[in-house]
Design a protein that fits this description.
Number of strands: 2
CATH class: Alpha Beta
Radius of gyration: 15 Å
CATH architecture: 3-Layer(aba) Sandwich
Helix content: 55-70%
Distance between the termini: 38 Å
Number of helices: 5
Order of helices and strands: HEHEHHH
Strand content: 5-15%
CATH topology: Rossmann fold
CATH superfamily: Glycogen Phosphorylase B
Strand order of the largest sheet: 1-2
Structural class: mainly alpha
Length: 104
């Protein structure tokens, strides 16, 4: 998902639900919903890249293909991705926490 900008997006969430790990630009909603490997290896749900160019994409794709060869790591990331919960009760609770912080 090499996007220049992305306010939210559903494609990465749908992909993660089915264990298809996203490779996306670290921007907007993509960055908000994908936990990058290896930045947070234990909770990773996909892969992000910051260099918004063909070279940036290809370089990160090389990293992804290297991780793909490490089956236990790949499966762990897939399991994390499939467990991601973007439901309204979770989102609403997060919004409520921010509002309570602002009011306090």
């Amino acid at each position: 998902m090499p996007s220049l900008y992305e306010p939210c997006g559903l494609s990465q969430m749908i992909a993660m639900r089915y264990g298809n790990l996203p490779l996306a630009t670290a921007t907007g909603g993509l960055q908000d919903t994908i936990v990058d490997y290896p930045a947070d290896a234990e909770n990773a749900t996909g892969f992000l890249f910051t260099d918004k160019s063909v070279d940036g994409f290809v370089s990160r794709l090389d990293d992804v293909l290297t991780v793909f060869q490490d089956k236990p790591t790949w499966l762990a990331i897939q399991q994390n991705a499939m467990k991601s919960d973007f439901s309204w009760p979770i989102s609403a609770a997060k919004y409520l926490a921010v509002y309570r912080l602002l009011v306090a």
